[in-house]
Amino acid sequence: MTEDRGLNVGSRSSDRDPRIAVIRHPPSLLYSSPVPVHVVDHPLVHDALVTLRDAATAPELFRRMAVRISLLLAAEATRDLPVSPVTVRTPLGPAEGRRISADVVVAPVLRAGLGMLDAVLELIPTARVGHIGLQRDEITAIASQYYAKLPRDLDRSVVLMIDPMLATGGSAVAALDLLKQAGARDVRMICIVAAPEGVALVQRQHPSVRIYTPVIDRELNTHKFIVPGLGDFGDRLYGTVDADVPATGR
Ligand code: PRP
Ligand code: URA
């Protein structure tokens, strides 16, 4: 991952959108301070994203690409995790290294966020997991909570909230409210496609939360689906989409 691409803050649509606070850093100031939106502009991320967007991608490949892109995004979102020095013995002698010293909690927003969980656990197997169940109403697009089970002591953890779609931002804000009420302080949100409306809402309600996304798409349609987006992530991940009714919110 080239560093100057890793923190390419803003995108074409967010540049135009007055609702999104775009902060620009010269490439030399990489990760020197938290910024609200990290647009992860890596070629492998975009390669996986375009497969996820393709309506012809079947659930099996969709799941694999969800894991691949999540690995890359999670690597970017954890770039500044604290580490402790360690010494191990290679077959040739001692070698100094670093191990992650942070307590990490991953919080998938059900159900679509589960498609990103294995990737984060592959990178950080010791992470604790908190599940947040939210469902958007199909007509109003308002999210309601049906489940929550969070680990204790979130105040000392780096929390990675994972939800692939940031559309109106209603689900993200509800999940972030829950995490903050449970004591979380350092929360980073990883998503796969964001809309300007969702980014703006999260920035307004939870300005300290860093958002990691490959892209901020153009807009929401009248059904509050992201355009061009990729359709209904959960339905495409789990194959619950009806063949006659594509996962587009129509
Ligand atoms: C999707 C997605 C987000 C939410 C985004 O979940 O995974 O959680 O919609 O939309 P918003 O920003 O407008 O709130 P959905 O409620 O469809 O549930 P699912 O994951 O079970 O499919
Ligand atoms: N949820 C999805 O899965 N897709 C969208 O475009 C919006 C919300």
Give an account of the 3D structure:
The protein has 250 residues and is of the alpha/beta class. It has a single domain, classed as Rossmann fold, CATH 3.40.50. It has helices spanning 3-6, 12-16, 43-53, 59-77, 114-123, 170-181, 196-205, 233-238; strands at residues 37-39, 83-90, 93-100, 103-110, 128-129, 131-136, 143-149, 157-162, 165-166, 186-190, 193-194, 210-213, 219-220, 226-227. The strands form 4 sheets. Strands 1, 4, 5, 6, 7, 8, 10 and 12 form an 8-stranded mixed beta sheet that branches. Strands 2-3 form a two-stranded antiparallel ribbon. Strand 6 (131-136) and strand 7 (143-149) form a beta hairpin. Helix 3 packs antiparallel against helix 4 (59-77) and helix 4 (59-77) crosses helix 5. The termini are far apart. Residues 1-14 and 22-34 have low confidence and may be disordered. Bound molecules: 1-O-pyrophosphono-5-O-phosphono-alpha-D-ribofuranose and uracil (URA). Residues 112, 165, 167, 225-226, 229, 232-234 line the site of uracil (URA).
What labels describe this entry?
250 residues; alpha/beta; Rossmann fold; 8-stranded mixed beta sheet; two-stranded antiparallel sheet; 31% helix; disordered N terminus; binds uracil
Radius of gyration (Å): 18 Å
Helix amount, in percent? 25-40%
CATH class descriptor: Alpha Beta
What is the CATH fold-level name? Rossmann fold
Global geometry: globular
Binned strand content: 25-35%
| Category from helices, strands and their pairing | alpha/beta
Query: Major sheet, described briefly?
Result: 8 strands, mixed
Order of helices and strands: HHEHHEEEHEEEEEHEEHEEEH
Query: Quaternary arrangement of the chains shown?
Result: single chain
Bound molecules: 1-O-pyrophosphono-5-O-phosphono-alpha-D-ribofuranose, uracil
How many structural domains? 1
Through-space gap between termini: 37 Å
User: Average pLDDT across residues?
Assistant: 87
DSSP summary: helix tally: 8
| Parts with pLDDT < 50 across at least 5 consecutive residues | 1-14, 22-34
Q: Architecture, according to CATH?
A: 3-Layer(aba) Sandwich
- Got a strand count? 14
